[in-house]
Design goal:
The protein has 72 residues and is an alpha+beta fold. The protein is 22% helix and 47% strand.
């Protein structure tokens, strides 16, 4: 997979765009927005701009969920 960094605001926002990989992912966007609430840092995640919802979209969603739950 090849991912281009489309935007980067340290400690606030990261935006990636998929340039290669599974055909369904090419052209999609992944964003991470970080918010501070007291002593916590929240990660707001989105994988968007899919051409259409297909079986792979569900698979990818589960993989992202597993990854995000692994963060500490």
């Amino acid at each position: 997979m090849k991912i281009q960094i489309a935007a980067l605001e340290p400690d606030r926002h990261v935006h990636w765009q998929f340039e290669s990989g599974p055909a369904e992912c090419i052209g999609t966007d992944v964003t991470f927005d970080f918010k501070h609430e007291g002593e916590y840092k929240l990660v707001c995640f989105r994988h968007s701009n899919w051409r259409e919802a297909v079986e792979f979209t569900d698979h990818c969603s589960m993989k992202w969920a597993t990854f995000l739950l692994s963060l500490k």
